């Protein structure tokens, strides 16, 4: 054999060995590079998401008073003693006497994640005082809805007996 043919055969063997030995490694390298690219993009998205969350958190800190108002309007628990105290205070401030207060029902709603609290109140006083009492309930931070209202006039005259059913929610 001539030198030229030996060189060509060695070159062919080298190419075949290169393709057989280096080819799979090259494929693995390309796959790893693609995986690294995907992971780096995922990391960038997560970093952007975290920075957006931090920015939103900073923006929410500007509205702490408003968020506290929302939390007081829609508390996580019914807190009946505080509600009873509120009704007692509101009725006395408006010139009414709170005769009775009864929690009618506390139900859990499946439509919304929360509880509905129904309370029955009985107060005695003048009509203008009762009107002011309803305005106070309407203006309260707690979302209180009047579901029914009844009153009667006793034979003596000006003192009315009012029955009010209200409902609230806690989440």
Please outline what is shown here.
The protein has 2 domains: 1-62; 73-170, Ribosomal protein S6/Translation elongation factor EF1B (Alpha-Beta Plaits, 2-Layer Sandwich). It has 4 helices and 4 strands, in the order αααββαββ.
Describe the structure.
The structure is a single chain. It is built from four helices and four strands. With 171 residues, the chain is an alpha+beta fold. It folds into two domains: 1-62; 73-170, Alpha-Beta Plaits (2-Layer Sandwich), CATH 3.30.70.60. The chain is rod-shaped and about 135 Å long. The model has no long low-confidence stretch (mean pLDDT 83).
List the main descriptive attributes of the protein structure presented here.
171 residues, alpha+beta, Alpha-Beta Plaits, four-stranded antiparallel beta sheet, 4 helices, 56% helix, 26% strand, rod-shaped
List the helices and strands and how they pair.
Elements: H1 3-61, H2 64-73, H3 80-93, E1 97-109, E2 114-125, H4 127-139, E3 145-152, E4 160-170
Antiparallel strand pairs: 1-2, 2-4, 3-4
